Amino acid sequence: MLAEQEARRALASGDLPKAAAIARSLTEAHPDLPQGYFLLGMAAAEAGRVAKAIPLVEAAVARGGAAPQARAEHLAQLARLLVLVRREGEAGETARKALDCSPGDALTLDTIGCVLARLGDHQGSLKPFSEAVALEPENPDFRYNLAAANGFTGDVEAARRHYERILSHDPGEARVHYALAILSRQTAEANHVPRLERALAAADTAGDSGASLRIRYALAKELEDLGDAAASLHHLSAANHAQKQALGYHFAQDAAIFDAMERLFSGDPAALAPGSGRTEAAPIFVVGMPRTGTTLVDRILSSHPAVEAAGELQAMPLAVKQLAGTPSRRVIDAQTIAASGAIDPGALGEAYLKRAQVHLGLGRPRFTDKLPANFLYLGHILRALPKARVVCLRRGAMDTVWSNYKNLFASHSAYYAYSYDLMDTARYYGRFDRLMAQWQRLWPQAVLQLSYERLVADQESETRRLLAHCGLDWNEDCLSFHRNRAAVATPSAAQVRRPMNADGVGRWRAHAAPLEPARLWLQEQGIAI
């Protein structure tokens, strides 16, 4: 149809009113055909009205009648929209239906891959990403997505080849520079420092603050690998200062969350909704500050034949937000925490398990949820799922502060905004430590606080203690966690594919002088260093 082509051109040029007007005329002229509804939905989505877009694209899918390629496009875009509104189970099912249509255009294939990756199915994303790159080999976004999936699934050399090909066409692609830096440990013989310095100069000259941020993080990581602590810290401090200013973060934002959670679970128990929660023993929550060994423990547990790794699920935060019913746009804030006291524990457990189920596929009786920030929700978790087990990783305070400060988390994540300032990170650790003490008092049998240092020093004994706490029989495979073939989508991917080692213990001491203010503050709070 000429009208369909014209509407697509209007969408591509950003003329949304024109695209919507043409699409509306198509639905009126051909109410039984899908094209008009689909394009009207795409116009609404581009305008940010996702809730309005979904039923329109659903109407296109329901009408059928489209050629397989068009149907694949409609299903893929519907899956993308469903992910945006956290309807993850439907999104995964819809994306797989789209793939079954054998789509022949690269954008549809890449969209399917992105949905699967967003749902944690990195192995499943490889096929559509690979096919997208085969169709459009010079598209950097498609190749980047494939490279990231290769890295997550352990094919480091393939990831490196794809990243290098992108840089051969665009030497300033900052996200690729950072991805290469964290892909593996750099050495004096093989590193990218000179190239990164040239890329940083170009980004600074162009005034591209986003690119400068990522390239500085890449330089900081590679220079630390090479033992140049001073130069590493120089780049890291500059990047973090700029990012904190850009976010407008103040520690009071996180302090209010901790205050609200402590109030909710330290007052009169009768103020909380009554109920006994769900009785399933399946979930094992691996929590703690980031970069403290949560991925390592998740790999140990998921090496057990009875345990499946579900990934870093947003299932509990989203279930709490949904059932609290607060209007704020943030998943966690003081208002939502206060309202969550009225949630029925059984309803919360059911909502969590329904969301978690989307990410399971091996049929094993137990699963891990390793979202580190779930330490904030342990009161909700243990009321809603009283038979769940919790493992909280505890790493030395200074190593924890340093590892958080030097890591580039998702740049706009609400959970980790504290990490762009050294003293904010120390303060956050102090509140984490205090909240964990409260959970330990309330649920001493359900929460195991596992020392990272003891685990790396005495792997077998601590692994036995870990499995016993989780109600799992001993299994030798748990000692060979580095052979676990499951995907890893965290900055720890390279480390957990090596046998147990103590390389991360005491790393902060290389920066002892600039970290001294944080050390003194922690010491004043009575926190062991």
UniProtKB/TrEMBL annotation:
Lineage, broadest ranks: Bacteria, Pseudomonadati, Pseudomonadota, Alphaproteobacteria, Sphingomonadales
Repeat region (TPR), residues: 106-139
Native species: Novosphingobium lindaniclasticum LE124
Protein name: Uncharacterized protein
MF-aspect GO terms: protein-tyrosine sulfotransferase activity
Keywords from the UniProt entry: TPR repeat, Transferase
Domain of life of the source: Bacteria
SMART domains recorded: TPR
